[in-house]
């Protein structure tokens, strides 16, 4: 388990990047909006204690137990990965510009075409809408594909997203899990 970053470590993490957890041929590549300072300071995705990504991943059936951010590389053994729409860390996602999201969408498209996951799961509807130019997109499977990769939009698991309860997040992750299993069995 990781230790809590200091105030100085958080300040130093501003505009940092975190390496992707990625490999060719994943079942699902999860894509966050961008890393927060807490994640940047620790070098781990979805690292802030209030973030509900790791519980939703487990409760949705993707992991055999609840992983912690410092175990992120173990996801590769489960054919899962993590990246971000925008690579740089910020204190809040609203510090990012529309241009950064659109450029992030172009970079993400290239990454998906290179690594060819079965599914790209963008974790945040607003980020998806802006990065890919689909202003009316809703949570769930999308008609949009990147090469052969299907796209699913998940709710943002941030503790600040009060619109989605932990049970609702888990249910949406479970819908993707079922779809990814169906895709694998074809």
Automatic annotation (TrEMBL):
GO molecular function, a single term: pyrimidine-specific mismatch base pair DNA N-glycosylase activity
SUPFAM superfamilies: Uracil-DNA glycosylase-like
Keyword vocabulary terms for this entry: DNA damage, DNA repair, Hydrolase
Swiss-Prot/TrEMBL GO biological process terms: base-excision repair, AP site formation
A UniProt-annotated Pfam family: UDG
Domain of life: Bacteria
InterPro entries: MUG/TDG, Uracil-DNA_glycosylase-like, Uracil-DNA_glycosylase-like_sf
Matching SMART domains: UDG, UreE_C
Domain Uracil-DNA glycosylase-like, first and last residues per copy: 19-177
PANTHER family named among the record's database cross-references: G/T AND G/U MISMATCH-SPECIFIC DNA GLYCOSYLASE, G_T MISMATCH-SPECIFIC THYMINE DNA GLYCOSYLASE
NCBIfam families, alphabetized: PRK10201.1 (NF007570)
Protein name as catalogued: DNA glycosylase
Taxonomic source organism: Amycolatopsis rifamycinica
